[in-house]
Amino acid sequence: MEGVPPVGRVGAAAGRARARTGACLVLLAVWACAGAREVKAMSQSRVTAMPETKVTVAAVVALDDPGGAGEATLRLADGSALRVPRQSPLLAFLAEWTRKKKAKPLYVESDAGGEVRLVLPAALRQVQRVDTEPKGDRLGVDIRMSPSRHFLKTTRANFAEQRQLLEHAAANKQPLLLTVQPESLEILDARQPPAGLDLPVI
Amino acid sequence: MAPPWTLPLLEPPPWLGGAAAPAAPTGPPGSAGNPLSQVQAIAIFGDLAGQKHIPFDYPPDGCFARAHEMCRIMQQHGIECGKAWIYASPGNALTVPGTPMGDIEWRYHVAPIVNVRGEDGVTRAMVVDPSMFDHPVTQDEWKGAMHDPGAVLQTTDSGPYYRDQDSDPSAAERDDDYSKTEAALEHYSEERDAWKASHP
Question: With an 8 Å Cβ cutoff, are A149 and B105 in contact?
Answer without folding.
Answer: yes
